[in-house]
Design goal:
The complex is a heterodimer of chains A (251) and B (636). With 251 residues, chain A is of the alpha+beta class. Helices cover 33% and strands 14% of the residues of chain A. In chain A, β6 and β7 form a beta hairpin. In chain A, α2 packs antiparallel against α6, α5 runs antiparallel to α6 and α6 crosses α8. Chain A is elongated, with a radius of gyration of 20 Å. The termini of chain A are far apart. With 636 residues, chain B is an alpha+beta fold. In chain B, a hairpin with a 2-residue loop joins β7 and β8. A five-stranded parallel β-sheet of chain B has the order 6-2-1-10-18. Chain B has a five-stranded antiparallel β-sheet with strand order 12-16-15-13-14. The chains are: A alpha+beta (251), B alpha+beta (636). Bound molecules: flavin-adenine dinucleotide, iron/sulfur cluster and FE2/S2 (inorganic) cluster (FES).
């Protein structure tokens, strides 16, 4: 059975580079197959733009299956779009109505300057990770894997936290542009495992300090981050980060 | 030029140890005086850059994505193999070696594969120490699963995100080195040429993907860990930015290309649905542990799958391969899916799909167990297709997934260009003509953590490295050449987009250099590809400008390289008149339709030397099997 094709109107943020002012530009895409992904719809639009000698819309993406964390736009006011638990590349056109106007913007945050159109610079997240998003082990200097059993509930919860893809949607959604969920997820992942305990205090101190330095805001418990997180990282991550931080302070 | 694999002597189990003992060392103080460029931050690149940084080398590390953590390795779902024998099912280094070399249809180097199995256990130890949350049993010990081509459970996994977790482990190690100043990181950079001076790899040219500028990087050695070239097919399970350009540029500067026609087509992917499609999504092979593959017995049976009674279903893998059943290796599973679809028994709208059914597993194990094992995969399937696989069987079809071919390397992982090392999927690899599931992650990390740190030291300590500077002519030339290539692409202003060309190339490759190949098709492919390439340079339309972020231009450069590589893939496939692993030549099959090897004539690695566009010379590295006897693979 042929599925009914959609007509989609778009208001897309176009910005030449970091220093230019951006603006919304309107486009219409016809014959959109509802099984298409949102990014495939943008591909189709870009093909049309190229044929018309216009500059295609720049947007970051790579895996297109919700795992690399490279994609990310604000779609109709929500980071990663209308459905919870999804990345921008997971969004399918069947989630929109025929004739609908979709507003597409980059992730906005002080710490995420726009590079071009929908692409932003999230390298601040890498710099936070460089301060402690790991256990300080050398290649080779490690014990046999079985020597430290990890209770299944810990392993499972650590995995829940480790599922963060570093997309930055939590930052984009937060009224304070805080990176607390992102940092909390990594702090929690490693705090839950015996391998991560030895440097738990140093880790949380250094990561939080770097987060502040990068210009991310403070967390004031709005909870928008959890709502948009494509990997459904629980806001308990932030609570755990705070507890770890306090522990570190009073050590 | 005679290819020297540098495989050391001695018994298989002693080769690596003996070799290590003989390798030269760089003194701790001297390490700081050596610089190494690592291109790529996937499992192979990140583990190499981190390990070399830890040792004290000055490392320059580049990647295309905005963060090293986003390398394509992140997408690996199913797991990583190791010979730990934690399940007490009599696994061993020998068995992992044997399964891998047999799975590769005896087209890999014995010594390399054995070494891979040997270091596999250390990888798990390393990952666990990094905090990789592998799945555990209630006692706190490891849960393992089995993958195709193996009769033991040796696969470690972290839910359906094993690649992600392993990569985050390696990325963490890398970021620690960045923080300590041992590794300088350059994300959003694309390598566009290799610089060879006095016959040695001494640097690269990369395009800054934000400003569009061409930059040069200089070092004492260059490591490519840039992944595979499956995206040549346009549609594949690989990430959008995966490319062959780094290895192809190196190939054109003297690195031989090994077995380019060895491409893996993965049996369990979500079928294509429309021509707007930009990529295909893999459903992890681990699903075959519990899912049963079938098609209707009758052609053109349009009934709802749940209405087709048991006796009218053909569980063709279980029927044809009673021992391995649904767990046959990938090439076998893919080819069989194609066969039943070609017979007209395929399912779904297009008839190009088979069922992967969990009904019986849910009945026997309970929905909860299945949810626990594959929940995220079922969700992903639902997001994409809108169907609930707990209720109706999944529809799957093979898709291009992995490239066993790649730059030829010796036992030290060095290419035919001295000082140019190649790791991970980018090299021609230890997987022969077919890779077993969960062994790419193993290989990438083996190369990066445990092999290159030793072998590169030997090169650096034992080679006279002249002083070079970026004013050297070779750097200037490479940069100019890259600039003029991009300018040319922008200036054609033709009528067809890069994507249209790419899709056309993909169709040629899929139809004629895909799951099943024959002489006529390959000859046609060679002609069509070279025509398409000519058209490309005269009729491509590339948007925008050079000195800005321009993904269309990036793609244009990559497709230009795919158009050259594709021809070599077809040439290699044409010359290899035997079938082996993923390379199935219709002219060479057993009466039952299985791949028929021709060991007498083809027990070698075909290493192609670039002469000029469209012209190559083939060199052979004979494969000698001292410790296993190649047999016709049987998974019956
Ligand atoms: C969907 C999927 C699932 C998979 N599941 C499994 C599994 O369960 N188990 C398993 O063992 N294997 C699996 N594989 C295979 C495995 O993931 C890959 O073979 C492996 O991760 C490749 O790692 P790599 O480090 O060699 O390259 P990649 O991870 O591809 O990394 C390449 C790196 O090189 C960089 N790069 C590339 N070109 C350039 C350039 N020109 N300039 C600069 N940088 C460049 C990229 O930015 C990236 O950082 C899977 C593959 C796919 C596609
Ligand atoms: S916590 Fe969630 S929203 Fe934030 S970076 Fe991680 S995955 Fe993205
Ligand atoms: S493109 Fe990788 S998560 Fe969306």
């Amino acid at each position: 059975m042929e599925k009914k094709k959609l007509t989609i109107h778009l208001k897309v943020w176009r910005q030449k580079d970091a220093d230019s002012k951006g603006k919304f530009v309107n486009y219409t895409v016809n014959d959109v197959n509802p099984d298409m992904s949102f990014l495939e719809m943008l591909d189709v639009l870009n093909e049309e733009l190229i044929k018309k000698d216009e500059e295609p819309i720049e947007f970051d993406n790579d895996c297109r299956e919700g795992i690399c964390g490279m994609c990310g736009s604000v779609i109709n006011g929500t980071a990663h779009g209308p459905q919870s638990g999804m990345t921008t590349c997971d969004v399918r056109m069947r989630m929109f109505k025929d004739g609908e106007t979709i507003v597409v913007e980059p992730f906005r945050a002080r710490a995420f300057p726009v590079i071009k159109d929908l692409a932003v610079d999230r390298s601040a997240l890498d710099r936070i990770m460089s301060k402690g998003g790991y256990t300080s082990v050398r290649t080779g200097g490690v014990p046999e894997a079985l020597s430290v059993p990890v209770p299944k509930p810990n392993a499972d919860e650590a995995m829940d936290m480790a599922a963060c893809i570093g997309c930055g949607a939590c930052v984009a959604a937060c009224p304070n542009a805080s990176a607390a969920l992102f940092v909390g997820a990594k702090v929690s992942h490693l705090a839950l495992l015996p391998q991560g305990r030895p440097e738990a205090a140093r880790r949380v101190e250094r990561m939080v300090a770097q987060m502040d330095e990068e210009g991310f805001g403070a967390c004031s418990n709005h909870g928008e981050c959890e709502a948009v997180c494509p990997k459904e990282i629980s806001i308990t991550a932030i609570g755990r980060m705070r507890r770890e931080y306090l522990k570190a302070m009073f050590k | 030029m005679k290819l020297d694999s540098k495989v050391p002597g001695g018994h298989l189990s002693e080769k690596w140890d003996n070799h290590k003992d003989a390798l030269k060392l760089v003194s701790p103080k001297n390490k700081r005086n050596f610089s190494v460029i690592v291109v790529g931050t996937g499992l192979a690149g990140a583990s190499a850059a981190a390990s070399l940084g830890e040792l004290g080398y000055k490392v320059i590390n580049l990647c295309i994505q905005d963060s090293p953590r986003r390398a394509h390795s992140i997408a690996a779902q199913g797991g990583i193999n190791a010979a730990k024998n934690y399940q007490n099912d009599n696994d061993s280094i020998w068995r992992l070696f044997y399964d891998t070399i047999k799975g590769g249809d005896y087209r890999a180097r014995e010594a390399n594969v054995y070494r891979l199995a040997q270091v596999s256990n250390a990888i798990i130890d390393q990952a666990v120490a990094q905090g990789v949350p592998f799945a555990r049993e209630y006692g706190g010990y490891f849960a393992n699963r089995s993958f195709g081509g193996a009769l033991v459970s040796r696969t470690f996994y972290a839910r359906g995100q094993t690649g992600q977790q392993l990569l985050l482990g390696a990325y963490g190690a890398l970021m620690r080195q960045v923080d300590e100043g041992n590794v300088r990181l350059f994300p959003r950079r694309e390598m566009v040429d290799l610089v060879v001076i006095n016959g040695k790899a001494r640097g690269i040219v990369a395009r800054n993907l934000i400003t569009g500028e061409l930059e040069t990087y200089m070092a004492d050695a260059v490591i490519l860990a840039t992944g595979g070239y499956g995206v040549a097919y346009f549609l594949s399970t690989n990430a959008i930015n995966s490319n062959a350009s780094a290895v192809w540029r190196a190939h054109k500067k003297g690195a031989f290309f090994g077995n380019p026609c060895f491409v893996q087509i993965h049996p369990t992917c979500i079928p294509r649905s429309g021509d707007y499609q930009s990529k295909l999504t893999l459903m992890s092979e681990s699903l075959r542990n519990d899912g049963r593959v079938w098609v209707p017995l009758k052609k053109g049976d349009k009934r709802h799958p749940n209405d087709i009674p048991e006796e009218e279903r053909d569980y063709y893998l279980e029927r044809k391969y009673p021992t391995f059943g649904n767990m046959v290796p990938r090439d076998v599973a893919s080819r069989n899916a194609k066969m039943v679809c070609d017979e007209g028994r395929g399912v779904g709208e297009t008839g190009m799909a088979v069922y992967l059914d969990f009904r019986d597993a849910i009945r026997d194990l309970g929905r909860e167990t299945i949810e626990e094992r594959y929940g995220n995969l079922f969700e992903m399937y639902k997001d994409i297709t809108g169907e609930d696989a707990y209720e109706v069987p999944m529809r799957i079809y093979p898709a291009v997934h992995y490239t066993m071919g790649g730059l030829w390397v010796d036992y030290n992982l060095m290419s035919t260009v001295p000082g140019l090392f190649v790791l991970g999927e980018a090299n021609f690899s230890d997987h022969g003509a077919n890779r077993l599931g969960a062994s790419a992650l193993m290989q990438g990390l083996a190369d990066g953590y445990f092999i290159i740190p030793y072998t590169i030291a030997d090169y650096l300590a034992g080679t006279k490295l002249e002083k070079v500077s970026e004013d050297n002519e070779a750097f200037k030339e490479a940069k100019e050449e890259a600039r003029s290539r991009y300018e040319k692409l922008l200036s054609v202003k033709g009528n067809k987009t890069v994507r249209e060309f790419h899709r056309e190339l993909g169709d040629i490759l899929w139809n004629k250099v895909g799951m099943s190949r024959n002489e006529q098709g390959l000859k046609e492919a060679i002609e069509e590809i070279s025509k398409l390439r000519e058209e490309y340079w005269n009729n491509v339309r590339v948007a925008g400008e050079m000195n800005t972020m321009n993904k269309n231009l990036e793609m244009a450069g990559r497709v230009a390289d795919f158009l050259e590589l594709a021809e070599l893939m077809a040439i290699d496939a044409l010359h290899r008149t035997e079938s082996c692993g993923g390379h199935f030549r219709e002219e060479s099959q057993t009466p039952e339709g299985e791949a028929l090897r021709d060991d007498e004539n083809f027990s070698y690695v075909a290493a192609w030397e670039f002469k000029e566009t469209g012209k190559w010379e083939m060199h052979k590295e004979d494969l000698k099997f001292e410790f296993v006897t190649p047999t016709q693979r049987s998974y019956k």
